[in-house]
Amino acid sequence: MLRFIFLLVMLAGLGAAVGYPWAVENFSGTELGTIRVYDRETGFTPARVIVSPVDAPVRVLVDLTALPQRILASDRTVIDLTIASAGGTQRTERLDFAPAQANREDAGLSSEQVYRVSAGTLEPRITDEYTFTFAPAGNQAIEMKTLDLVLRRNALAWDKRVQPAGFIAAALGFIGFVLAFRRRKRPPVEPQRRKWGRG
């Protein structure tokens, strides 16, 4: 029973540390729109979107679909994203697309893979038009087939205190789970020797 409790604590900690931030960044809110900003025929195309305060916060995600190719763990494709509003605010985000898992050097050609990167959130105070401009920057080892801008309205911001607490809970659960297996069993009680002779 004790081992089962420690196992639950470990799994809950991993869920809070890893699953919670991933779910909030990728699935919180509702989709405002998906816009194709690159394909191999037309190249990069700026995207223009009108965003209002009722949509805030708006999470900005970028999906890169790679061509079938051999992708190594060290491969990267770096894209610069400039976000500018008609009101004059502007910021630049550097997006680093990389394999989530290492592939062996002798691996065969992979099928199409999609890599997602978060570019933060927008907090519009007035209804404004935002222009999203993409440009290659640095390494382009992962060959792109397409690049899509994904906007999600009313996205949640995950509580950064949850992740370290989740890692601590996972570590404590793991330690308790291991120690529960190593508990010493009581040594068997030796039967009392019968005394012979005069008492």
What distinguishing features does this structure have?
five-stranded antiparallel sheet, 2 helices, 23% helix, 38% strand, 199 residues, four-stranded antiparallel sheet, alpha+beta, single chain, elongated, Jelly Rolls
The fraction of residues in strands falls at 35-45%
Global structural class: alpha+beta
Q: Given the C-alpha coordinates, what overall shape results?
A: elongated
CATH fold annotation of the largest domain: Jelly Rolls
**Largest sheet geometry:** 5 strands, antiparallel
Q: Could you name the ranges where pLDDT drops below 50 across 5 or more consecutive residues? A: 101-109
The CATH class of the largest domain turns out to be: Mainly Beta
Overall pLDDT level? 79
Rg to the nearest angstrom? Answer: 27 Å
Total count of helical runs of at least 4 residues: 2
Task: Work out the number of β strands.
Answer: 9
Strand order of the largest sheet: 2-1-9-4-7
The helix/strand order is HEEEEEEEEEH
From the coordinates shown, what is the CATH architecture of the largest domain? Sandwich
Tell me the helix content: 10-25%
As for the number of domains, it is 2
